[in-house]
Amino acid sequence: MDWQGQKLAEHLLQILLIAFAITAFIVGYSLASFQLMLAVFAGGVVLTSLVIIPNWPWFNKHPLKWLDSSEAEKYPKPVKEKEKEAGGGAKKKGEKR
Amino acid sequence: MHWFGYRANALLTLSVTILAIICGIASFSDTFNSPLPTASIQVLNVNRFQKLSNGDDEVSLTLNITADLQSLFTWNTKQVFVFVAAEYETSKNSLNQVSLWDGIIPSQEHAKFWIRATNKYRFTDQGSNLRGKEFNLTLHWHVMPKTGKMIADKIVMTGYALPQEYR
Q1: Edge to edge, what strands does the sheet with B77-88 contain?
Q2: pTM here?
Q3: B75 neighbourhood in chain A, CB within 8 Å
């Protein structure tokens, strides 16, 4: 998933769960059935999990733009020259004294 | 949220938290219920009234219990536990409460009832004080919710008395 997709997933999670909770309470209270309230909410949890957990394509609409490999080759990684200089400096000092 | 496991974890914790909140609201909705229960009890017969070998008095009664507890039930009620207690005063104890009969009412349909029964549990005194004793019969109930706080209340009925002599 990309960044926009993750944001969408989180928003969908919160909105869907709260909407199902409110619906479940209203249905349960008006029909005077506690069991029905729990059933509606459980159904809502299952539906929400189907919407946000799998890696659906709509979560990948803004893919990250990685650099091309040709760009990376133009700026090669610096070699570790510090070790070479340190070794050479110590040798020089030793010889002078 | 990049890995499905994180999303599954967030879903699980948020849904359980929201479930707790709606159960709390359901329990709170019980406060809007104003119940009007009624009850009456008659002592039909004093079957036995004797002094036991250890010196305590014992009575056996046949009771006729009529009650309408339908208004106690809400959508959040699992069952109502109801019991009848005899209450009286002696020189030794300022209040004696003896449970005579109890029952469980599982639903609103069963809450309006009429029952004729002898006392389920023995009506025994701590001592020999029951001859001619005046006592109250109290119908207690405990409303047990599906979620939330249990509520207990009672109706006190006065004016009952035991015979002066053993039978």
Answers
A1: B96-105, B77-88, B134-145, B151-161
A2: 0.78
A3: 28-29, 32-34
